[in-house]
Hints:
The complex is a heterodimer of chains A (451) and B (474).
Chain A: H1 7-10, H2 15-20, H3 30-39, H4 47-51, H5 58-67, H6 70-80, H7 84-90, H8 113-127, E1 142-146, H9 150-161, E2 165-169, H10 178-181, H11 190-200, E3 206-208, H12 215-224, E4 227-230, E5 250-252, H13 253-261, E6 271-275, H14 279-290, E7 295-299, H15 311-319, E8 323-325, E9 328-334, E10 341-349, E11 355-357, E12 363-366, E13 369-372, E14 394-395, E15 398-399, E16 413-415, H16 418-421, H17 426-447
Parallel strand pairs in A: 1-2, 1-4, 2-3, 4-16, 5-13, 6-7, 6-13, 7-8
Antiparallel strand pairs in A: 9-10, 10-11, 10-12, 14-15
Helix pairs in contact in A: 3-5, 5-6, 5-8, 6-8, 7-8, 9-17, 13-14, 14-15
Chain B: E1 10-12, E2 15-17, E3 21-23, H1 32-41, E4 45-47, E5 51-52, E6 62-67, E7 70-77, H2 86-99, E8 104-110, H3 115-127, E9 132-136, H4 150-153, H5 156-169, E10 174-177, H6 186-194, E11 199-202, E12 206-208, E13 230-233, H7 238-249, E14 258-261, H8 267-275, E15 280-283, H9 285-290, H10 295-309, H11 314-317, E16 337-341, H12 351-359, E17 364-365, H13 379-387, E18 417-418, H14 428-432, E19 439-443, H15 453-458, H16 464-473
Parallel strand pairs in B: 3-4, 3-15, 4-8, 5-8, 8-9, 9-10, 10-11, 11-14, 14-15
Antiparallel strand pairs in B: 1-2, 6-7, 7-13, 12-13, 16-19, 17-18
Bound molecules: flavin mononucleotide and iron/sulfur cluster (3 copies).
Amino acid sequence: MSQxxxxxxxFSPAPEIxxxxxxxxxxxxxxxxxxxxxRCLYCFDAPCTAACPTHIDVxxxxxxxxxxxxxxxxxxxxxxxILGASCSRACPVNVLCEGxxxxxxxxxxxxxxxxxxxxxxxxxxxxxxxxxFEPGEETGRSVALIGAGPASLAxxxxxxxxxxxxxxHDARPLPGGLNTYGIAEYKLTLAxxxxxxxxxxxxxxxxxxxxxxxxxxxxxxxxxxDAIFLGIGLGGIHQLGVAGEQLAGxxxxxxxxxxxxxxxxxxxxxxxxxxxxxxxxxxxxxASVRLGAVEVHMIYRRGAEHMSAFSFEYEHAKQEGVNFFWxxxxxxxxxxxxxxxxxxxxxxxxxDGSLILEPGSEFTLPxxxxxxxxxxxxxxxxxxxxxxxxxxxxxxxxIVIDRVSxxxxxxxxxxxxxxTNGGREVVDAVADGKRAGIGIAAWLEGNHVHA
Amino acid sequence: MSTPxxxxxxxxxxxxxxxxxxLASAPPTNCGEQVMRAFDAGWxxxxxxxxGAPITNVSSRYSSIDWDGHRMMGLNNIELIxxxxxxxxxxxxxxxxxxxxxxxxxxxxxxxSKRETWHEIVQRAExxxxxxxxxxxxxxxxxxxxxxGSAVGQVPEYCEQITSWVKEKARTPVIVKLTxxxxxxxMPARAAKRAGADALSAINTINxxxxxxxDNFQPNPNVDGKSSHGxxxxxxxxxxALNMVQQVQSDPAAALPLSGIGGIGTWRxxxxxxxxxxxxxxxxxxxxxxxYRIIEDMQDGLLAWMAEKGFxxxxxxxxxxxxxxxxxxxxNLNYKIVARIHEDLCIGCQLCYTACWxxxxxxxxxxxxxxxxxxTRTPAMVEATSAQRISTTPIPKLDSGGAxxxxxxxxxxxxxxxxxxxxxxxNLCALxxxxxxxxxMEQINNGLPPQNWDERTSAGLVPEGAREVMNTNx
Lengths: 451, 474
Ligand SMILES: Cc1cc2nc3c(=O)[nH]c(=O)nc-3n(C[C@H](O)[C@H](O)[C@H](O)COP(=O)(O)O)c2cc1C
Ligand code: SF4
Ligand code: SF4
Ligand code: SF4
């Protein structure tokens, strides 16, 4: 059992971070929550539930808020999604549950499902109660999980509820993966992510921190466990491949976000360029604004219509005062010792739709910090590739799985989350992990394998 | 030719009033200052908070039922009659009448069941200038223990006796206020009529316990850990009041000019009471909730509706709906309606579907996208299929086409279908549908002539056993 340390106290963010990254979704008061809950129609086979990757029974948990059964509401959420608190804050609800609420078709505001879920989970955490589930009767089987992100956490919870031992390995000193280190602090704080994960230890999930898994350790884990779950996420952010990339003052979005969330970074240089236009790029740009940058530019090769960020994230960035450069590409980073400017070249579309550099269109932006957010690579070199153990099939760097069970081409290996889907949301990783947990249990049951 | 402008002027049991809106005897008519402000706001009359022997009230006194975010759907009170000395009340009545001669003040009375006591209070109230008297035989708590209020209203003989004592003395119209806490409201109404009452008013409050506190197990309203049976009123009681009004007004032995009370808050409510035969209406809870100012729209709205319907006076539509309420055995058994879902309005909540499966006749189905109608799929089977669907967050970059499904249009598979052949026309689906006019009930021409239970029985089409069952239901 873990000591019930208050993560909020232990990991409360630096005061300047807390002040600049105030909660984007202030909690609902209890009366407001009841009124909002009563607005829900209690649809049959509700579209919001169908849209949720973890299929939280939305009308059920909402009606429990309306009836004042807050413990039951949290149990309903946790039963489907063990990271229900993080998801209530991190989920892009506009394209998920709230986006499919029938109220849209009635010219009404959708039910604020995310904020109601947050309300139920906040009150559950405030109660100090343990998770409303017991570990299953011990089966003697065990699974090693690689990576302590949402996929592994969800998988481990399912395994424990079925009496299967679950040991999670992670290279970092704290659990949660991107849930802890990668979500904008105004959505989900590092402390809240850790607090939620702490509850999992009650189910008997074990953690091995600062334990990077290489091929040798993996082989050892494979021989001592009944199955392996890979929840390894993606690799580092891609390089630009231009001159000056090694200069001080060039960083990447993930390091920037993890840095300010864990209190290592508390200010920003004055002029920042973020290269890329995905959701992570937007998070980095907004973070720079909040950390005190005077000018923040986003640099993207294509037009606004092609950006991979959600449109509400784009709107948010505009509101924060982020400036956008479309159809440009960084062609050099300049500076002596550290970054002084970024050279950009315009891109012109060709007839076949590809983009080419427009000669003579170069211009230079004075910049103090360049933040790269142009996609992540994969991290699969340590996986079995034929010698001794069956190969794990990959496709464009992603691990190929059976969507229902999470099983890879090597039957003893299961996987889920970003390493299988190329990088989606926390809730998708939780759903993958949950399906894999159930899949592993079913496979062990059918196979009677024993280590 | 245009119809003359409608007027709200009425004469109720001989009492002429500028409009049919009176304040019921209750806190809003507690003192002269209040009643005068109410008259300034536009109320035609006020039945003074019941005057009688000195009493002591408890605190707290009120509790209520909220529903679906609405406060005070039903209000409950355990307060007694006026806690002010009779002289003070009568002096203020005189003052109000002097300053507002055109407005009506009715003295509500409740005293000991003694002939002389009643004679005395009648004399004093009339001397003060009251335009009429209302006998409070309805107060469900506190007073009944002392042989007053509903203790009188529940026993027709007492009701008759006291009314006749009052009639011996009274020069102004006598209104008997009926309690609903009785199995047949017509009995005390008939008694009052036998005794010569000029009018009736109904209903007073209904015995109630509004709720129990789940932390300390004590009922509301809490008086030092205990409560008592109170009187229920407000929007929740309107259907009960309408039913009692109809019962009294369709009984020739009971029918008298009737002042309708119970859950009235808008001109629409008032119009319904008048359509069932009321000569005017009284309001309490709605004023306690929103204040005297609600009278403005009550008048305005009623006048507009009267103009639209071509009525010039209240009497033009008073009682029009009475013939439309009849005994079950006279209803046309060959009338057939079915539910129709208007696809263009449906938002796909499927409340109608669950309602018909669990609460009606299992004839709404989710099979529009099935190759052929499939009436065998149960709700559990539908849910089991959905639970297996894998959904992911639509990410613009990863999902070509980008956009998630449009949430503006209801997908066909979510729009339920009514199996009209098995629909019994119960209305339930239309009642639960959150979208106005999305489900309409349509008449089916089955080619059969109207036929009611009576006709069917006399035609010998109903077996003996069934007659008994159906009669008890009716
Ligand atoms: C707090 C309170 C006190 C009342 N006191 C009296 C009373 O003294 N005499 C009386 O005849 N009715 C009394 N009533 C009943 C009202 O006159 C009226 O019959 C009842 O509230 C139903 O009307 P409503 O639904 O408009 O409130 C009282 C009602 C309330 C809520
Ligand atoms: S779709 Fe909207 S109204 Fe229907 S159950 Fe979900 S949240 Fe409630
Ligand atoms: S209740 Fe109304 S809106 Fe909802 S599915 Fe049925 S018809 Fe459509
Ligand atoms: S009217 Fe009644 S029986 Fe007919 S479809 Fe609606 S709920 Fe079912």
